[in-house]
Amino acid sequence: MSEPLVAAETCVAIGAHGQQLEAYPGRDVQIGDLRVLRALPVKGRRLIGPWCFLDRFGPLTFSAGAPMDVAPHPHMGLQTVTWLLDGEVVHDDSLQQEALLRPGGLNVMTSGDAIAHAERTPVENTGRLNGVQLWTALPESDRHGAASFQHFPDVPTIEFTGGVARVFSGSLGHATSPAQHFSPLVGADLQIHARETLTVPLRRDHEHALLVLNGDNALHKEPLGQDTLYYLGTQREEIALTSVSGGRVLLIGGLPFGETILMWWNFVARTPEEIRQARDDWEAHRRFGDVPAYKGPRLAAPDLLRLANPNPVS
Fold it and tell me: How does DSSP assign 179-214, residue by residue?
């Protein structure tokens, strides 16, 4: 009997030859009451360094209920990186780790070969939700390792003339995030002061991208629009960002990832067989573990023939 097909998405580094400025509009994904902008992967650009996934959720205000309630689900072959601008998120996982994430704090979960987790808005909350969720693909040498979870209440901050950089992943200038990663990369929240210029140093061998978080922003006097991923290529020693009224921009980057990956649902793999096995294991309650802190049913895996979108905040 032949194995069922897997509608996985192939993601490969396209390569960056020098400086570029390419705009990739994101797409809206509605999950319950939560609007999510999916900025990566997009058609024509699947990877930025090892970053393979980027969702922008919020800004959202609410007076009742829990806009974020992502039931237990599995991961393999990746790291999740959650950075909050406003609000609160509770993380629970199959390692029985629990963390309440607040603005300025950082959650990084390394799936290794297998982990399950859930994320939700806590009962006691500010009525606001605003942040980003990113994934990095783990390299072959590390993707079968042990699962782990890291929580940091704050991250290094650099005060520049014209703004502030909060470095949540990798290194920027003289600041390095305390989070463990497995590829050379950078992830930073750049805040530009009104009527000033923020000049940020970059590594020439890294490729980079920008996503506006709020306000009006321009890169080297070129206006940056909302809901759009801007790919910058490589060979840049710095970028200069300006804002009339004050703005905020997400910077991600890293060495171009040298491995082709397959993405399907919440899995990053190398072969369809790995995805089939992982799905079977999740459905059979093997390998990934349970999340006992979450009170409710876990998510069922989609059909293999469907190009399954990842959970928006996963």
Answer: S--SSSEEEEEEEEPTTEEEEEE--TTSEEEEEEEE
Q: What would the pLDDT profile of 128-157 be if each residue is shown by its tens digit?
A: 999 999 999 999 999 999 999 999 999 999
Pick the closest to residue 84 from 131, 134, 25, 31 (CA basis). Answer: 131
Which residues have CB under 8 Å from 210's CB, separation 6+? Answer: 219, 224, 229, 230, 232, 239, 249, 250, 251
How confident is the model over 78-91, as a mean pLDDT? 98
Tokens at 26, concatenated: 């994101």
SS3 label, residue 280 = helix
Q: What is the pLDDT of residue 238?
A: 98
User: How many CA atoms within 13 Å lie on the side-chain side of 308?
Assistant: 19
SS3 292: coil
Specify whether the CB–CB gap between 112 and 145 falls below 8 A.
yes
